[in-house]
Amino acid sequence: MPGTLPPEFADLEPFADWAIPTERARYDKRVSSTMEELQALYDAAFPRMDDALTYLEQFSLDALPDDAKRLLWLYCAVTTASFPVEVWRQPHVPDSGAARFDAVLEPAI
Q1: pLDDT of amino acid 71
Q2: I need a labelling partner for 70 at 20 to 30 A (CA). Which of 79, 80, 81, 84 fits?
Q3: Which residues of 8-42 are buried (b: 16+ CB within 10 A; e: fewer)?
Q4: How many whole angstroms separate alpha carbon 40 and alpha carbon 58?
């Protein structure tokens, strides 16, 4: 999906499929991904986090353009991937069995 993120973040377009609007769907993508996929997302996006925050702060949360909204969702996915990459070295929470947590209400953006 070329052109789904702001032009300043064209280098992150290969990861545009991570720009997912809900926590549950981001989590599902995380646990269905390989560590190589999670690591690639993290390695590409984490160094640009300050740039992304600076870019997003120019907009009101309730007035984000669509490409900025997708950038925000992409960085929500980076957050979702950070513990598997930095701590667990696996997509699932270790020793958690079938336990899961679902968000009951999510912010509307």
Answers
A1: 98
A2: 84
A3: ebeebeebbebbbeebeebbebbeebeeebbebbb
A4: 28
CA dist., res. 67 & res. 19, Å (int): 10
CA gap 106, 109 in Å, rounded = 9
Q: Provide the sign of the torsion angle of the four alpha carbons 5, 8, 60, 42, taken in this order.
A: positive
**Both tokens of residue 41?**
């997302």
CA angle 68, 74, 79 (to 5 degrees): 130
Q: Please, is 75 exposed, middle or buried when counting C-beta atoms within 10 Å of its C-beta (0-12, 13-18, 19+)? A: buried
Q: 């980076």: which residue's tokens?
A: 78
Lookup: tokens for 44: 């590409």
d(CA 66, CA 70): 6
Measured from the Cβ of residue 95, the count of other Cβ atoms closer than 10 Å reads 7
